[in-house]
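[job 4417] fold queue: 2 targets
>>> target A
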Amino acid sequence: MKALLSIKPEFVYEIMSGKKKYEYRKKIFKQDVESVVIYASMPVGRIVGEFTIGEIISSSPKEIWKETKEYSGISYKDYCKYFKGRKDAYAIQIKELKRYERPIDPYETFDHFVPPQSYKYIYDENPEKSEMIKICMA
């Protein structure tokens, strides 16, 4: 299964450049997800690529930073701000990055597109029923 993640444009740039090899989250998937489709949030507002998931690290924010800071693609100050008051943190390892040649404008492509606050599952058990999965697999 795939999941669609909203990621701020500055962090999408860091992912695409190869500097950011971990995507940090306050919540993690409840179902098995093998790959992530990247939605660059506004002002970009496009689906720009995808990556397969390596490992998902679950620990305290302090421990996750220790383990991933070399490839965080984010300042320690911003990292602390994001996880302020949290006991649990997650780091999704980015593997096999694929940049789309033509980013997808989901507002023109899908009826009633609403970007996910955290993540949205893209079901692929029956791709002909899911326009999102068809486009992302093309």
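>>> target B
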Amino acid sequence: MRLATYNVEWFDSLFDDRGRLLADGGWSARHNITRQMQAEALGIVFTAMNADAIMLIEAPDTNSRRSTSRALNSFVEAYDLRTRAIVTGFVNDTQQEIALLYDPYVLTARHDPQGGADSVPPRFDRVFDIDLDIDATHDHVVFSKPPLELAVQTTSGRDLRIIGAHLKSKAPHGARGRDEVMQLSIANRRKQLAQAIWLRQRIEAHLSAGESLILMGDLNDGPGLDQYENLFGRSSVEIIAGDGGPPLYDPHAECALASRISAQPTTARFYLSSEKRYLQALLDYIMVSEDLRALLPKWRIWHPFDDPACWSTPELHQALLTASDHFPVTLDIDL
């Protein structure tokens, strides 16, 4: 079985309010890329991946006029994909939903949020109270994009839990001046670490119950990614992976944690206009519980420059660069 996580930059802009795919000459939300160019590139990438299930980060929006499912159905039909079943979770206000596309002949998945009215940790669409700065005052934390919690069963009868996550970005948007940038950056990191702690508490509940678990998505963080990590002592990736508790494993995270000054895997590529160069970062992960790691799964980052097959296949190479500023990560595992 092949599972994938893929952050598709502004997927929502490729569809109208009826969910119809706008594969035309109009500009997409990506710089200097038309909707037709991005849509066709995505079709190439999805076809090449041939995954049994794809956790979509920044999936098309759901609101009073738009529907994630309608839009994804249009995309699936346009490129004749076998991942025709769609499951979504709690709707958010960011125009970037989390959704799972999957092949119903390989597995079934349903939204199965955990946490009751008074549970600790609470359900992901509620409020998490935590004292992050040791001032005896609770911070009230919410997810701008509540994680997607899924109960999954394979056609072979294997049960597992999958959580799709997109943690808040740490970029200090709207800040003016060095002091304001620093203040907002620290506040954003504090919120992100709170979200990671919240997510980790849910993970530990599943692991304590002996459940097989996969955590997939864009954590917008990695060891050594910015200078504010030292202020709090650890990254959200370390918190989610275990940091001394029952572990979740991702070889790319392990590689990055082992040495922060050597070459590291990356899953995203952004252009820094102020510096006229590209920045690469490790942001996207597929973490598995120890019982699943024992099955010897294989991870792959579909990086257009670092993956030999992606590099040597011109159509796929260009499609990966055109489709999004993130690259897919896949996991091949015998379930």
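[job 4417] complete. Note on B: The radius of gyration is 19 Å.
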